[in-house]
Amino acid sequence: MKVLGIETSCDETGVAVYDTDAGSLRAHALYSQVALHAEYGGVVPELASRDHVRKLLPLIRQTLQESGMEVGDIDGLAYTAGPGLVGALLVGAGVARSLAWALDRPAIAVHHMEGHLLAPLMEDDPEDPGRGPPQPPFVALLVSGGHTQLVAVEAVGRYRLLGETLDDAAGEAFDKTAKLMGLPYPGGPELAAQAERGRPGVFRFPRPMTNRPGLDFSFSGLKTQVLLAWRDSGKTDSDRADIARGFEDAVVDTLAIKCERALDEAGCDTLVVAGGVGANRRLRERLRKMAVDRGGRVSFPRPAFCTDNGAMIAFAGALRLQAGQYEDASVRVAPRWDMAALPAL
């Protein structure tokens, strides 16, 4: 089965073709709107929707051409239906449903975070080749600009929330912290780049909610601590790098501590990490060390598939289409959507 996947949940237009017979991607393409939104310091929903309209069909044509396929060769379609920006979601859903109707092919609405969660299962971990993708049961850390969650995964579609952020997500905290220190948009990658130059231990910030039981997160207080440190510093380039390093270390330590607790609670030795913050080099190193020390395993998607992309949607949709799940012809999206409500395969 050749499944065309479409991702338009926020500010990136992603398209991919996943071939279940070959067990691999045929092609994938991504267009980022970063330059469009940079002057506003954040995503403008109306502009995001309009840019998806402008770029989606050309990307579909490009992806099909690179995969050596015609549109009639598509066996099924998968599209992000939520969570996300409602206008952006409707663009992808409308195009996918229209193609499904015109081609008389099945289509499936994909939960954006399930796409992230399953991305590490799509191919071998590039940093651990030959071992094969992880298989449930495992614990998943979903860590991005909009979500920070720990999920016990018993099987595809059988998810149990262990903990989540009570305020800012980790990626959101990265972006906001970068902005308050005057770094350009998008702030998260800029702050991580600054942290690479920073000296460890010059600024040490609290590891929030690690001194109490439970698996929930909170990063808003950490953001305030950084604000105070930046205000009282000399605001030099060196100060900015050292504060960025202190902030990044605090986030990485917090995530690692909670992940280890989640593995203990779930009685599991396999951790899967997905979402944009999963591309952070220091987080990857820390979690890999934790896994080795425990005699377990941690698996990441390749960095290009940590951020929003069409490949993860094509793969997640292909699993559900193969199981006989599909949607009717209605165009529906869910800006808020509980992943626990998804049907099991």
Describe this structure in words.
By secondary structure, the chain is of the alpha/beta class. The protein has 2 domains: 154 residues, Nucleotidyltransferase, domain 5; 167 residues, 2-Layer Sandwich (Nucleotidyltransferase, domain 5), CATH 3.30.420.40. It has 10 helices and 10 strands. Strand 9, helix 9 and strand 10 form a beta-alpha-beta unit. It is globular and about 60 Å long. The two termini are 17 Å apart. Its EC number is 2.3.1.234. Its main location: cytoplasm. Belongs to the KAE1 / TsaD family. It catalyses: L-threonylcarbamoyladenylate + adenosine(37) in tRNA = N(6)-L-threonylcarbamoyladenosine(37) in tRNA + AMP + H(+).
Q: Over all CA atoms, what is the radius of gyration?
A: 20 Å
Percent range for β-strand residues: 15-25%
DSSP summary, beta strand count: 10
Distance between the termini: 17 Å
**Structural classification:** alpha/beta
Give the overall shape: globular
Which oligomeric form is depicted? single chain
Highest-level CATH class of the largest domain: Alpha Beta
Q: In total, how many domains does the architecture comprise?
A: 2
Question: What are the segments in which pLDDT stays under 50 over at least 5 consecutive residues?
Answer: none
Mean pLDDT: 95
Q: Provide the CATH architecture of the largest domain.
A: 2-Layer Sandwich
Identify the CATH homologous superfamily of the largest domain: ATPase, nucleotide binding domain
Helix content: 40-55%
Main location: cytoplasm
Pfam families: TsaD
Binding site for Fe cation: 112, 116, 308
GO molecular function: iron ion binding; tRNA N(6)-L-threonylcarbamoyladenine synthase activity
